[in-house]
Amino acid sequence: MTAAEAAVAEAFRQEWGKIVASLIRMTGNWDLAEECAQEAFAAALTKWASDGVPDRPGAWLTTTARNRALDRLRRSKTEAVKLQEVAALSAPDEPAAWGDSGVQDDRLRLMFTCCHPALTLEARVALTLRTLAGLTTAEIARAFLVPEATMAKRLTRAKHKIRDARIPYRVPPAHLLPERTTGVLAVLYLLFNEGYSASAGGDLMRPDLTGEAIRLSRLLAGLMPDEPETTGLLALMLLQDARSAARLDGQGELVSLEDQDRTRWDQAKIAEGIELLEAALRRQRAGPYQLQAAIAACHAEAPRPADTDWAQIALLYGELGKFGRSAVVELNRAVAVAMAEGPEAGLALVDELAADDGLSGYYLLPATRADLLRRLDRRAEAAASYRAALKLAPTEPERRYLTKRLSQVSG
Description:
mainly alpha, Rna Polymerase Sigma Factor, Chain: A, Serine Threonine Protein Phosphatase 5, Tetratricopeptide repeat, 19 helices, globular
């Protein structure tokens, strides 16, 4: 990869959401915003290769994308009125452009637009991941465990719904925030998860996405200080992100939770996460994000793997399941049961899940089964499950980890 290509790739990770969000605010046209942003990044590949990477890549890309959008609008006779609107909106520091909330963050406005209650929850999440995080349709489809063509149709319908219903591009006033909360929290958590465990590619983690999810969660918690689930989600992200430095070793290989060097965990994030969790729980309106944060806290507070309260974690997963059946939650509960009661007990639960189609294509199902079989010294069966997991693993670090485990039970 050339220096220009590397710079463009890094700029995409850092700037895509900002650029698309500002173009949507400027033009009101989602497809045009994405197209002009893509054209700007394509132009950067050529221009930066010949002229060098600019001192402020994000500013260069934003200006180029805005100019492309303005040129396209000028060429379209039907958009003459829109040019007048653009002139009024082009000064982002004007309070009148912020909406009733007074929040001037384009990305937060974009998120609330995507999460309008007129859209289905799946469409809200998918559209935000596409426009804010720059995930491809294929990556989002994998996150939802649906075919790429199905996801493409959902995205198109969502954009048309926003256009036809004239859904405003703004953070809504305080009295309308609660009706958007579920969708916004789901978007933020999926954005964080894509950064914490990438759905594809050579890297296990995308710190730009986890950082953006935490940043937006802080803004949302400030907007809704009395909503415990927003605080719980921020606590959950901090507690999970605290382990990031220990998830890969010096050679870039994946390290399982039980083998991580806990001295590398970020104690400041753990302390903040626990403080936020306790504040949320004091409101006595426990929800799924608070429960997941409580599970993360059980791990964070254990100085050694042997000190982990797996029985409490299994109980918390059981409570989490009451908020809606989730095969992924059931799989995680099976792991906790295995650690608390023995691998046989966990394996029975995993085999029940395997008989259902809810996790077909999800590599952690055969990977978990393989690990439990390895602990039971059923090596041939474990090897078969590791091979099945290898076919489904999305990133190179995960494939290398599974290959290592496979060699252990095969040799």
